[in-house]
Amino acid sequence: MTRHLGLKSALTALCLGLSAPALAHPHVWVTAKAEVVFAADGRVTGVRHHWTFDEAYTAYVTQGLDKNGDGRLTPDELQELADENAASLNEFDYFTVLKARGKPQTFDAPREARMSMEKTQVSMSFLLPLKAPVAPSGAVSIEIEDPTFFVYFSLTEGQAAISLANAPQGCVTSIAKAKPLDATMQQILQDEGAIQPQDIGIEYSNRAIIACP
Questions:
Q1: How far is CA 46 from CA 52, 124, 127, 142, 166, in A?
Q2: Which UniProt keywords apply (predicted)?
């Protein structure tokens, strides 16, 4: 029987099923890029995410999904998993914070969820719409992270890490990428009670500020 796991169940099962040395934080590594989507009237309407998961998570979460046994996983075979993952993202606050003029905005349920295999890693893309579009005046900021450090997000290289779709002319983006976790920081995260995630600092966060004229 094929096993289908939403993101929360899969991450929990992965954590419990791995050997002890692998249980250090983080448990799952994601390489991310995002596209901030603008409407024709110049307001921000949402964020389109693209996440590529590490090989260990990929191997676990895709078990039993090769329905035709041809050794390849197609987007159709991964669609049910994509839908379940998208549906569970609200439990994690979508790993996304978008602020307009310093005020956090509220998201609607994800749409257009898709998953595909990129060599040995599974990728997921989805549109995260805002419940109410916002004007970019006064700056818009976006943060992509898991404050518990169960999942660690790293942005792709270059300005494409946070891009703009249909933005008004003159909008510019300033990106601050999360600092890579070295062995010392991973050990600190592993030592229960040694440090709280909120005390680690913004250098381990992915943030961007979008300024429009």
A1: 20, 17, 7, 11, 12
A2: Signal
Please tell me what DSSP assigns to residue 107.
Answer: B
Structure tokens at 201: 């600092």
Question: Which domain does 192 fall in, by range?
Answer: 7-16+24-211
2 located within any domain: no
Q: Would residue 1 count as lying in a domain?
A: no
Residue 128 lies in a domain: yes
Q: Is residue 146 part of a domain?
A: yes
Report angle CA 55, 203, 103 to the nearest 5 degrees: 100
- Specify the DSSP element, H or E, that contains 165: strand 162-165
* Token pair belonging to 183: 């062995």
Q: pLDDT tens for the chain, 213 residues: list them.
A: 334 455 655 555 544 444 333 444 677 889 999 999 999 999 999 999 999 999 988 988 888 888 887 878 999 999 988 998 898 888 889 999 999 999 999 999 999 999 999 889 999 999 999 999 999 888 999 999 988 778 889 999 888 899 999 999 999 999 999 877 665 566 555 655 444 555 555 677 899 999 998
Q: At residue 108, what is the residue type?
A: D
Q: What is the pTM of this model?
A: 0.84
Q: Which amino acid is at 14?
A: L
